[in-house]
């Protein structure tokens, strides 16, 4: 099936405390976003890559591509006010056939194994998301009270979230709701069943200076092994 990936990179990096948006910060002298795009290109050089960026960031991105001689083919879509709107804009550059994944631009360490599981499983099941189990104890907060919860009943959600393109497009015809925190929640609101596959613990979302420290360590490790970390 024809495969597409929408990479959403609309963050302003406020939690990072840096002048540059987090997707443009360097890891190993190259912007985070380029590492992310390269990961999907390595997975499948024929994959249709759609990068969603705020219009105000697109000229700077083009300058970065020139500076780093970045030549991986991709299409640009305008970012929206919300992630929902950004994905919707990206979907306009995708036809109704095949599979479409949506991935956070600041998750450069998703493994090839995770991507493969997501796309292969989505071909059969229609709607698939990668998850990892929490390792710390959980408590639910309700007002001034809190309650212990069984962590084995919960999973932490990652990307890429992959769907039959026709299903994802149909889901995004609805109006935005605050409960839409990711693409799975949009498809679920349509009545779609979401299937879970194993993610990889290195697939962190870079949102803080501490995350950048972890990202640098992962990058240095990947140089030693000549490959990006695989899931464990």
UniProtKB/TrEMBL annotation:
Keywords noted in UniProt: Isoprene biosynthesis, Nucleotidyltransferase, Transferase
Keyword Transferase annotated: yes
Catalytically driven reaction(s): 2-C-methyl-D-erythritol 4-phosphate + CTP + H(+) = 4-CDP-2-C-methyl-D-erythritol + diphosphate
Top EC class of this enzyme: transferase
EC numbers, comma separated: 2.7.7.60
Keyword match Cell wall biogenesis/degradation: no
Molecular function terms, GO-annotated: 2-C-methyl-D-erythritol 4-phosphate cytidylyltransferase activity
InterPro entries, alphabetized: IspD (IPR001228), IspD/TarI (IPR034683), IspD/TarI_cytidylyltransf_bact (IPR050088), Nucleotide-diphossugar_trans (IPR029044)
HAMAP family per record: IspD (MF_00108)
Family indicated by similarity: Belongs to the IspD/TarI cytidylyltransferase family. IspD subfamily.
Name of the protein: 2-C-methyl-D-erythritol 4-phosphate cytidylyltransferase
Lineage: Bacteria, Pseudomonadati, Bacteroidota, Bacteroidia, Marinilabiliales
């Amino acid at each position: 099936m024809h495969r597409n990936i929408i990479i959403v990179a609309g963050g302003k990096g406020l939690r990072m405390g840096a002048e540059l948006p987090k997707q443009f910060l360097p890891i190993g002298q190259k912007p985070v976003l380029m590492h992310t795009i390269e990961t999907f290109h390595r997975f499948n050089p024929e994959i249709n890559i759609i990068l969603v960026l705020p219009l105000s960031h697109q000229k700077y991105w083009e300058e970065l591509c020139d500076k780093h001689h970045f030549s991986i083919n991709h299409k640009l879509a305008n970012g929206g006010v919300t992630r929902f709107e950004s994905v919707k804009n990206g979907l306009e550059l995708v036809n109704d056939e095949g599979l479409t994944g949506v991935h956070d631009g600041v998750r450069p360490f998703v493994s090839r194994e995770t991507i493969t599981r997501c796309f292969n499983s989505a071909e059969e099941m229609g709607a698939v998301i990668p998850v990892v189990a929490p390792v710390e104890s959980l408590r639910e907060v309700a007002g001034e009270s809190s309650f212990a919860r069984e962590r084995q009943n919960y999973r932490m959600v990652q990307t890429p979230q992959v769907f039959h393109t026709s299903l994802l497009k149909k889901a995004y015809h609805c109006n935005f709701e605050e409960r839409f925190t990711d693409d799975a929640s949009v498809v679920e609101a349509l009545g779609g069943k979401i299937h879970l596959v194993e993610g990889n613990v290195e697939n962190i979302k870079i949102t803080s200076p501490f995350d950048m420290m972890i990202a640098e360590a992962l990058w240095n490790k990947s140089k030693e092994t000549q490959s990006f970390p695989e899931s464990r």
